[in-house]
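User: I need a structural model of Rrf2 family transcriptional regulator from Oxalobacter vibrioformis for a docking pre-check later this week. Nothing fancy, just the predicted structure tokens so I can convert them on my end. Input:
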Amino acid sequence: MQLTQQTDYALRVLMYVAANPDRLVNITEISDFYQISRSHLAKIVASLGRSGYLKSIRGNNGGIRLKKQADEINIGEVVRRFEPLGILECMGKGGRCVVARNCMLKRIFIEATSRFLETIDQYHLNDLLENGMLLQQFRNR
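Assistant: Understood. Predicted structure tokens for Rrf2 family transcriptional regulator:
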């Protein structure tokens, strides 16, 4: 299973912001750090804000920060908000298949997706920042 770029970027933004809890972070800074398009990142940040993960402060000294503590942000929840989890076309909304009722393929992928989510549900944003070297890299900007 491969996560979409949107999910990947959302997790990266959350990690960067969580690694800098004592200050406001701006989109340009994150864009430069990850070498991601600023305009694309702005859309991700807006979506994270609407989802209740980030708080935006406007103005010259504005920026973004976490709206919740890092240990309250579940990785599985973030992935569910950003990721279309229907691996097969028939698993998506309105997906139809003439053999769906008897199809083992769909059952297998539903089970695999469920186990994937069970695994990532065990982790929170703070777990992604346990590596001291990674934290130092985020903070030395």
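Before docking, keep this in mind: The two ends are 33 Å apart (CA to CA).
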